[in-house]
Specification:
By secondary structure, the chain is an all-alpha fold. It is built from nine helices and no strands. The protein is globular and about 50 Å long.
Length: 199
């Protein structure tokens, strides 16, 4: 019976955890699809926290450098996205602490069972006037996000950009699910007020 070489992970169908494990085992090609899947969300998460492209680029590089350095110690005890956004979240916290600008402070929990993100309107149609107004809307969104308290902005962006479940955000930030639900709900309410004329 012939001996077969181990099969390579197919990057277009492999899950994030499989790709990261393959990368940790020495398959450098497994990093490319992993990076391609998450680079946009991680960058937007960082940019919307700091509001400065140069700072976001620097933090972005730090996050991916941390992923590369930690590859050998990676254990898929949670979704890869949860692990990745924990690194990104910690980098944001370090940035704000270094600036002396903010601490993540818990917001009082508020009960409610509905997922507040479900209420976010879907993408607008691709009409010419909508595309022309896109830059202004993007600037308005960035300004509205910047006005949110850091804890609310972080929870909202982890949910929206990171695609993390509320329970994953709670585990990542060390606060209860109800608190995270409240933070996302309050952030969404404030964003709706600030951007109501865009709806």
């Amino acid at each position: 019976m012939p001996i077969r070489a181990p099969a390579c992970v197919a990057p277009n169908v492999a899950g994030d955890e499989d790709l990261m494990q393959a990368y940790a085992a020495g398959d450098a090609a497994a990093f490319e699809p992993l990076y391609a899947r998450h680079r946009g969300g991680v960058y937007r998460y960082l940019l919307r926290h700091c509001g400065n492209a140069g700072t976001a680029e620097e933090m972005f590089q730090d996050v991916w450098t941390s992923v590369i350095r930690a590859r050998a110690a990676y254990v898929p005890s949670a979704r890869f996205a949860t692990w990745l956004y924990r690194i990104a979240h910690n980098r944001v916290v370090d940035h704000w602490r270094a600036q002396g600008l903010a601490e993540f402070v818990p917001v009082d929990s508020d009960d409610g069972d509905a997922d507040p993100i479900e209420a976010i309107p879907g993408p607008r149609s691709d009409e010419p006037e909508v595309r022309a107004a896109g830059r202004e809307q993007s600037d308005r969104l960035a300004a509205a996000l910047a006005r949110l308290p850091p804890a609310q902005r972080d929870a909202f962006l982890l949910h929206q950009e990171g695609g993390l479940e509320l329970s994953e955000i709670a585990a990542l930030t060390g606060v209860g699910v109800e608190t995270i639900k409240s933070r996302v709900r309050y952030a969404l309410a404030k964003l709706r007020i600030d951007l109501q004329d865009l709806q």
